[in-house]
């Protein structure tokens, strides 16, 4: 089960009761944060989340509303007793930005491992992570996270191949075993690949066609909707953001299961007023709000 | 009238409903921030404060709980339409830290003027600012802010010296005037100096004797009290912080009017439980809390 919690849904500047952009994703107790605007650690505390099992922080881009919470998060993780390395992934320039922010952090009891994207071959814990360059005012990456589903155990196949029954469990768990000089591999007892769970997260950007393919078949597509109404199109074009309708169009093209809108303009105090602008295009749209959660299961 | 608002009273890490360390001081519509931990701009929005008239940000030291809110504040000030320069004051190393944090800020529509302390000869708007090095794990400064009070107008003195009555108002306002070849100076019509308003702010530090002199006769002394109870003395010594009783001792020695305790440990969820530990030493002690305010008048 992939647990998703939208820690903050605010863009640009915080408004009271709306934290800046951040998403928390957990699978089997291991956590990944995507973006961490100012206040992210407070929002995590409000949901009662621990900090020690955060294995990676993925940064879309280096605007303060997406990353200013990083120093605080790193210190609070340190305080949780973490000693294992933490990955920080981000667009080009990551090293310079992280070094800049570390001037107010001091020593950390764990190593930071930086991965500068674009990079679509990242594996952290059980997460397979891909990135896609977006179209914003600075280099910006969308992320997709994929949890692979283990193929079904095929008892017939195991019997046909005379696999000793005491090895079934280990093979089923993906382990290779050598017994009495013969090597047994998981594929000897496993059936066909099954679809895993896919999450796609994209902010900030103008709509780009490649994003629809990148988000293809996601269980959840979390996408910026800086402005609700078509009247804001000029602003959206100028500031390189999206309207609700543009995010919905991408969701439809990508045939995703559901769309959550996020990263609302501080002037958009009641985003739900504009939801029909998205639903008219993609029915299963929901307005994001701070600490909105969903648990996604394998189908 | 000097308006004081404790925007955040949390030390180290935020806890829900307790913002990190920051103080807002306003006089005649001009504002100074002392420290700006993560979330400071949200606390300012909650009290309905504007951002455009912030003339200076004074940083005690470069731990994230005192400065991580700086990028967000600078951007929100930019968004308010500010174009006049802003002063940032801090201990040695300021330039490096500000440059580091600016990696996530981009261009600002105003100039930043940095003043690296210790420096006790700073004048910004009507504020006379002094600094005092403290004893923390990194270089750290206490700040005192002083608003000078104009001496009383002395009509007898003015009459004795045959000052033309039409000049009285301008001289009283501190202006020098030349009329018919004669120079008139404010001191010709003004009485003795009168005590102004003094605020002293000190966090983080072990108690140092020089701080009592530095805070001398303050109308308000805002001082860290990381721990409430004497049982925490070992921790306070190790982490270079103060107990409530130590802050109270400094307040008493400095003969200040009132003491506000701030910068509470995240483990100190009910600081008011320990107030007697301070009051036994210095009666006019109050427990700081987020957005606690006071307006200080000339006496």
Description of the structure:
- 2 copies of one chain form a homodimer.
- The first copy, chain A, is an alpha/beta fold.
- Chain A has a single domain, classed as Ribonuclease Z/Hydroxyacylglutathione hydrolase-like (Metallo-beta-lactamase, Chain A, 4-Layer Sandwich).
- Chain A is 23% helix and 29% strand.
- Chain A has 10 helices and 16 strands.
- Chain A has helices at residues 40-46, 64-67, 70-79, 94-101, 155-160, 168-172, 209-214, 233-239, 244-253, 275-279; strands at residues 2-8, 22-27, 30-36, 54-58, 86-90, 112-116, 122-124, 127-133, 141-149, 177-179, 182-184, 194-202, 220-224, 259-262, 285-287, 292-296.
- The first copy, chain A, has a 7-stranded mixed sheet. A 7-stranded mixed sheet of chain A has the order 7-8-9-12-13-14-15. The first copy, chain A, has a two-stranded antiparallel sheet with strand order 10-11.
- In chain A, a hairpin with a 2-residue loop joins strand 10 (177-179) and strand 11.
- The relative contact order of chain A is 0.15.
- The model of chain A has no long low-confidence stretch (mean pLDDT 95).
- Chains A and B meet through helix 1, helix 2, helix 3 and helix 4 of A and helix 1, helix 2, helix 3 and helix 4 of B.
Summarize the structure in short.
Two copies of one chain form a homodimer. By secondary structure, chain A is of the alpha/beta class.
Feature tags:
alpha/beta, seven-stranded mixed sheet, 10 helices, 299 residues
Ordered list of secondary-structure elements with their pairings:
Two copies of one chain form a homodimer.
Chain A: E1 2-8, E2 22-27, E3 30-36, H1 40-46, E4 54-58, H2 64-67, H3 70-79, E5 86-90, H4 94-101, E6 112-116, E7 122-124, E8 127-133, E9 141-149, H5 155-160, H6 168-172, E10 177-179, E11 182-184, E12 194-202, H7 209-214, E13 220-224, H8 233-239, H9 244-253, E14 259-262, H10 275-279, E15 285-287, E16 292-296
């Amino acid at each position: 089960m992939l647990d998703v919690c939208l820690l903050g849904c605010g863009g640009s500047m915080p408004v009271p009761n709306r934290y800046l952009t951040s998403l928390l994703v957990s699978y089997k107790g291991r956590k990944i944060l995507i973006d961490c605007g100012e206040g992210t650690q407070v929002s995590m505390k409000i949901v009662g989340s621990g900090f020690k099992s955060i294995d990676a922080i993925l940064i879309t881009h280096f605007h303060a509303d997406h990353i200013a919470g990083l120093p605080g998060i790193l210190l609070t993780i340190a305080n949780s007793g973490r000693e294992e390395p933490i990955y920080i992934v981000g667009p080009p320039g990551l090293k310079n930005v992280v070094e800049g922010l570390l001037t107010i952090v001091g020593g950390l009891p764990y190593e930071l491992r930086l991965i500068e994207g674009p990079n679509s071959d990242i594996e952290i814990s059980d997460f397979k992570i891909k990135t896609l360059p977006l179209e914003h005012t600075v280099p910006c990456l969308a992320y997709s996270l994929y949890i692979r589903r283990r193929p079904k155990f095929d008892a017939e196949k195991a019997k046909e191949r005379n696999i000793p029954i005491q090895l079934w469990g280990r093979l089923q768990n993906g382990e290779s075993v050598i017994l009495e000089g013969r090597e047994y591999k998981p594929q000897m007892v496993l059936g066909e690949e099954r679809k895993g769970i896919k999450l796609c997260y994209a902010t900030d950007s103008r709509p780009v066609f490649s994003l629809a393919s990148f988000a293809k078949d996601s269980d959840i597509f979390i996408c910026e909707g800086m402005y609700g109404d078509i009247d804001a199109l000029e602003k959206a074009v100028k500031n390189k953001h999206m309207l609700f309708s543009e995010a919905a169009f991408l969701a439809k093209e990508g045939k995703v299961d559901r769309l959550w809108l996020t990263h609302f303009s501080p002037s958009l105090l009641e985003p739900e007023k504009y939801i029909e602008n998205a639903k008219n295009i993609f029915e299963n749209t929901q307005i994001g709000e701070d600490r909105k959660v969903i648990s996604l299961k394998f189908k």
